[in-house]
Amino acid sequence: MNRVASRDRTEIAYERTGEGPPLVLVHGTAPLGTHADWQLVLSDFAERFTVYALDRRGRGESGDAVDYALEREFEDVAAVVDSIGEPVVLVGHSLGALCSLEAALLTDNLERLVLYEPPIPEEGETLTDEETVARIEALFDDGDREGALTLFLREVAGESRTEIESLKASPEWEVAIEAAHTVPREVRAVDAYRFDPDRFAEFTVPTLLLSGGDGPLFMKQATALVDKVVPNTRIVTLPGVGHEALSTAPELFVETVLEALLTTE
After folding, report:
1. How far apart (Å, rounded) are the C-alpha atoms in residues 25 and 54?
2. pTM
3. pLDDT for 264
């Protein structure tokens, strides 16, 4: 793993693979919550790009800080992007998409932006209710990390019982458990986040927005909001796919992204 220091000096780790123009991947909170979330699409991207798949702070091999703020995550992504010697394509999934969107305002080193369902609550809405977050935190406090992560996947991420059981049966489940301690703070941070369209009024980076046709309504609405207020965007819906296209429909995800990137070069 390679590392770069973020603005607050926290080290952010990333895996570099492939050859070609730079492509930076930013994972979400689930299902694994590390750069391993991209494992089913990584090799396809690496055939055409030099891929930088990072671990967000507190997860995988990246460092962390005593005090957490979502804004530090935006700076982390920008630090990785700025460390690369040429303009990059930045791809984010879920919370990673929100971090990528905000990071785009902190760097001039972007060629294109690809966002898959950033979780942006509308005014008065939250990602989940306080009772659910408190239950997740209580399970962590009791040392039941697996129970806490399972509750998050089911109640917040909207994963089906089949999807959760499949994940638990995989070798990557331990990776997910190791990264799960950041779940409560990330949920609370998203609920506290307020999207300000005025900050993107002069934004010019071409942006592809992806949405799962069978994904949660909340995520569809958030993606539509970005499409409505951010300039130079277009939205593509992946039919028959939910929020976790990286693992449930990797071929379709790669095909959609590559078609958008390669036909506009």
Report:
1. 6
2. 0.92
3. 54
Using one digit for the tens of pLDDT, what is the confidence trace for 222-255?
Answer: 999 999 999 999 999 999 988 888 988 999 999 9
pLDDT higher than threshold 90 for residue 171: no
Which 8-state DSSP code applies to residue 10?
-
Contact 29, 95 (CB under 8 A): yes
Task: Work out whether the CA dihedral 102, 106, 108, 110 comes out positive or negative.
Answer: negative
As a whole number of angstroms, the distance between CA 187 and CA 192 comes to: 9
**Cβ-Cβ contacts under 8 Å for 43 (sequence gap 6 or more):** none
Sign of CA dihedral 248, 209, 190, 93: positive
Distance (Å, whole) CA 89 – CA 237: 20
DSSP, residue by residue, 64-118: --SS--HHHHHHHHHHHHHTSSS-EEEEEETHHHHHHHHHTTS-S-EEEEEEE--
- Three-class SS of residue 134? helix
* Closest among 233, 235, 206, 49 to 112, alpha carbons compared: 206
Provide the b/e sequence for 120-155 (b: ≥16 CB within 10 Å). bbeeeebbbeeebbebbbebbeeeebeebbbbbbeb
DSSP helix/strand/coil, 245: helix
What are the strands, taking DSSP E only, across the chain?
2-5, 11-17, 22-26, 50-54, 88-93, 110-116, 207-212, 233-238
Distance CA 72, CA 135 (A): 26
